[in-house]
Design a protein that fits this description.
The complex is a heterodimer of chains A (509) and B (204).
Chain A lengths: L7 H11 L9 H32 L3 H8 L12 H6 L6 H15 L21 H15 L8 H4 L3 H17 L11 H10 L7 E4 L6 H13 L7 E6 L2 H13 L5 E5 L20 E4 L10 H4 L18 H10 L12 E7 L1 H4 L2 H12 L3 E6 L12 E7 L7 E5 L15 H13 L7 E4 L1 H6 L21 H28 L4
Parallel strand pairs in A: 1-2, 1-4, 2-3, 4-5, 6-8
Antiparallel strand pairs in A: 5-7, 6-7, 8-9
Chain B lengths: L9 E5 H4 E5 L15 E4 L16 E3 L15 E4 L7 E3 L7 E3 L3 E6 L9 H8 L2 H10 L10 H5 L2 E5 L1 H41 L2
Helix pairs in contact in B: 2-5
Classes of the chains: A alpha/beta (509), B alpha+beta (204).
Keywords (chain B): DNA-binding, Endonuclease, Hydrolase, Nuclease, Restriction system
Protein name (chain B): Restriction endonuclease subunit S
InterPro entries (chain B): Restrct_endonuc_typeI_TRD_sf, Type-I_RS_S_subunit
């Protein structure tokens, strides 16, 4: 049967509508997992079915042959566990446990690939209400995803991006819809675009995000390599994420975007860094980037003093603000530079306090600058991030710098204002990138500061200290102001007389 | 002050007898700014609290509805029907390719009242306390107050003879100029003080 061409908007709408089934019953922070998991299941099921159909055409009379061929597919789905198997039984009781069983079976059948990915999600949960209501909700869900518009067969979709985009669309909507809590797993796309361009990931690079959330920043970096190296997929993505459901999301997101070469670990990066080499040391990367939680409270201060990886040797960040804990961790996972290789480079999104807070943070900052690791400070506009209005900054660090200066860019005043969120336009991003690459002072926008200048400022990196954006007021001539005043007063007196005339005409005098 | 104000012979009449009332152009959704668009649109934010139109800040957009748009003409009156302010605004000149947002009404003097009704005077009256009080009592909605068309249509208007209207309109126009002048005087004083502060710091 010929399939109609697929339309991204249509898919987004259909999936978003499927959310209606849950609205009012469960919180978005919970049902997002159901929706996103179902989208994943639907996608691999359709992919599976597509292949089966194709093989049936070839080897129609040889089911054993088909089965053998299917065993080599990237995702294996055991008999009875596809989306369509569940769909077929949707009118019977037990939808919840059937879906759970299917997910479990798929996890088992795919070895380490999907290990634990579905463990945090149970469709057979009381959160969906008592048995009958739960069954009804899940039947609706299966029916929404069973619609023809959501036919995600590769033969119809063509490229993977349609599903990946739908995934991103949903994550973004959940982030916008569920307010503060969701900010933790979504970096606005322009900011991850900007980071991925600034860091210039190259072919063969190992790229890591130690606070990867749903993995969008990592995938942007991957896309950057593909874009600049002729579609090359010669790179590897690494990540770690503390929240189990978000980690699952990142895993599914990777597969949906065709990023099979990844290693995303689940766990707390500061207390328990999982990305280690065979000898129990930290892995090192060419590119390290993250948008870690801003000023995280209870980040693991208690054990930082005897960190087995000595990540906090420049100082232990304050108990209630984890910003420098993430920065320190990231610095320690950068590859060293050499005369032939540029070495590790890193981009991190931070709240402004990181630039100027004193005491232990001040000491760490001084040390990082004295070691000549800090390369660039970029001030971003306010209201760019979900769930917080505060302006953020990007810090770029390099293991191997070309000079001993720090470039400051004040990009805080150039943006497109939106209703709740401000936006960086392509032009805004391009200007930041050009300025960064030229590494030169630009009047009222950027300043290349020497180490001495930073020392004179006590290692305070507050951007206005370096980039003077103060608009000189025109020289005011007191004599001109004075004569203008007299003219205005004269005009006012005339007007007063004119108005008195009107009042008289009207009989008020 | 007058012991007793001159009693102007005027008759009370409802607004809809004097003017036609048209809803604003039915843009779909919020009005999207498009620098390459063909038309301009007046929105409530373009109307000051005194009822002046700031024509220089109008956004450029495209017509998204099916209906043909009304272009603004000299003598038209715009009325903000939604939100906390229910002001009227006088259109002082023809504005081709300029229409109005759906949250505004377009009031146009009926042909039979041409020459007998000064629209600038009418604008002034709509913005004064008695008519405003009438709107306050009739506005509907909790967050977004709304004056429906029938409510606007029934607003009570006093119509004196045309000479009186003209004089009031001139007084109103003068009061707008006075307001602007006073603001310039305030700004002028601020400049003076800034200059003194700058002198102090640069000579210390």
């Amino acid at each position: 049967m010929p399939h109609s061409p697929i339309n991204q908007q249509e898919i987004n709408n259909t999936v978003w509508k499927a959310c209606d089934t849950f609205r009012g019953t469960v919180d978005p922070s919970i049902y997002k997992d159901f929706i996103l998991t179902m989208l994943f299941l639907k996608y691999i099921s359709d992919m599976h079915q597509d292949k089966v159909d194709e093989l049936s055409k070839q080897f129609g009379d040889n089911p054993a042959m088909i089965e053998a061929m299917m065993a080599s597919q990237s995702f294996k789905i055991p008999t009875g566990s596809t989306f369509w198997d569940l769909y077929e039984h949707r009118h019977e009781a037990g939808n919840g446990s059937r879906i759970d069983q299917a997910l479990h079976a798929i996890e088992e059948a795919n070895g380490t690939k999907l290990k634990n990915v579905f463990q945090g999600i149970s469709f057979n949960t009381d959160k969906l209400g008592e048995e009958k209501q739960k069954n009804d909700i899940l039947r609706h869900l299966l029916e929404d995803f069973g619609k023809e518009t959501l036919n995600l067969r590769p033969s119809r979709v063509g490229s993977l991006d349609v599903i990946g985009n739908a995934y991103e669309y949903l994550i973004k909507h959940f982030a916008a819809g569920s307010g503060k809590s969701a900010g933790e797993f979504y970096t606005p796309p322009e900011v991850s675009d900007l980071l991925s361009i600034l860091l210039e990931p190259e072919e063969g690079d190992q790229i890591c995000d130690p606070a990867c959330g749903s993995g969008s920043l990592l995938m942007k970096c991957g896309k950057q390599v593909q874009k600049n190296y002729n579609g090359s997929k010669k790179y590897a993505l690494f990540g770690q994420e503390a929240i189990g459901s978000t980690w699952s999301l990142a895993k599914m997101n990777m597969f949906l975007h065709g990023e099979d070469n990844h290693r995303i670990e689940w766990g707390d990066t500061i207390r328990n860094p999982k990305l280690q080499d065979g000898n129990g040391g930290l892995l090192h990367f060419d590119v390290v980037t993250a948008n870690p939680p801003f000023s995280l409270d209870k980040w693991g201060h208690e054990d930082a003093g005897n960190d087995p990886f000595a990540r906090f040797r420049r100082g232990i960040p304050p108990k209630t603000k984890g910003d420098y804990a993430f920065i320190s961790h990231m610095i320690e996972t950068l590859k060293p530079g050499s005369s032939s290789k540029q070495g590790g480079r890193m981009g991190v999104v931070v709240p402004h306090g990181v630039l100027f807070r004193a005491s232990s943070e001040g000491k760490i900052r001084k040390q990082l600058i004295d070691e000549n690791l800090l390369d660039t400070v970029i001030g971003l506009p306010e209201k760019l991030f979900f769930g917080t209005g505060i302006p953020a900054a990007i810090l770029i660090f390099r293991k191997r710098k070309t000079d001993d200066k720090v470039l400051f860019i004040d990009a805080s005043r150039e943006f497109q204002s939106g209703k709740n969120q401000n936006l960086l336009t392509t032009d805004n991003i391009q200007k930041i990138v050009d300025t960064y690459q030229n590494r030169q002072t630009v009047d009222k926008y950027a300043y290349l500061a020497t180490l001495e200048e930073i020392q004179e400022n006590d290692y305070n990196l507050n951007i206005p200290r370096y980039v003077d954006t103060f608009e000189e007021e025109e020289e005011i001539d007191l004599m001109v102001v004075r004569s203008e005043r007299l003219a205005l007063q004269n005009e006012l007196a005339n007007l007063e007389a004119e108005m008195a005339g009107y009042l008289k005409e009207l009989g008020y005098e | 002050m007058p012991k007793k104000a001159k009693a102007h012979a005027s008759r009370q009449i409802t607004l809809s007898e004097l003017v036609t009332i048209q809803a604003g152009y039915p843009f779909r959704g919020s009005i999207q700014e498009n620098p390459d668009g063909d038309v301009k649109a007046v929105q409530p934010r373009d109307i000051s609290d005194l009822g002046e139109l700031s024509a220089d800040k109008l956004i450029t957009t495209n017509l998204t509805g099916k209906r043909k748009a009304d272009w603004l003409q000299q003598g038209d009156i715009l009325f903000i029907s939604k939100g906390i302010r229910h002001f009227a605004c006088y259109v002082p000149e023809d504005m081709p390719e300029t229409t109005l947002a759906p949250s505004l009404f377009l009031l146009r003097v009926k042909p039979e009242y041409q020459g007998q009704l000064n629209p600038e005077f009418l604008t002034w009256q709509i913005n004064q306390a008695p008519v405003q009080r009438y709107f306050d009592n009739s506005a509907e909605g909790s967050r977004q107050l709304n004056i429906r068309k029938p409510i606007l249509a029934a607003a009570p208007i006093a119509v004196p003879d045309i000479e009186t209207q003209n004089t009031i309109a001139r007084l109103y126009a003068a009061s707008l100029r006075e307001n602007a002048l006073l603001h310039r005087l305030i700004h002028n004083r601020q400049q003076q003080l800034n200059a003194i502060a700058n002198d102090l710091i640069s000579h210390s």
